[in-house]
């Protein structure tokens, strides 16, 4: 059974709203993280979920350092 296609724009918008980060910044981090994950991946089914989690964690960690 095929996995539903993830709408990257919706994910980026959601992360931007959750983390109070500009959409352009989130989009760049998402694209960079996805590229890094794809280089070593053998299974791609959960890639969007894992990338979104990593981006959220990265942004939360960077904002906690600023405070």
Q: What is the approximate shape?
A: globular
Number of domains: 1
Structural class: mainly alpha
Largest sheet: none
Rg measurement, Å = 12 Å
The averaged pLDDT comes out at 89
Unreliable stretches, pLDDT < 50, 5 or more residues? none
What percentage of amino acids are in beta strands? under 5%
How helical, in percent, are the residues? Answer: over 70%
**How far is the first residue's CA from the last residue's CA?**
45 Å
Number of E-type strands: 0
Order of helices and strands: HHH
Number of helices: 3
Can you give keywords for this protein?
about 70 residues; single chain; mainly alpha; about 75% helix
Written overview of the protein:
This protein is mainly alpha-helical and 67 residues long. It has three helices and no strands. It has helices spanning 8-19, 23-40, 47-66. α1 (8-19) packs across α2, α1 runs parallel beside α3 and α2 (23-40) packs across α3.
């Amino acid at each position: 059974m095929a996995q539903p296609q993830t709408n990257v724009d919706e994910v980026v918008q959601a992360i931007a709203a959750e983390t109070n980060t500009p959409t352009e910044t989130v989009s760049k981090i998402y694209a960079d993280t996805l590229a890094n994950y794809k280089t070593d991946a053998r299974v791609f089914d959960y890639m969007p979920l894992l990338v979104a989690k990593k981006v959220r964690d990265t942004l939360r960690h960077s904002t906690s350092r600023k405070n």
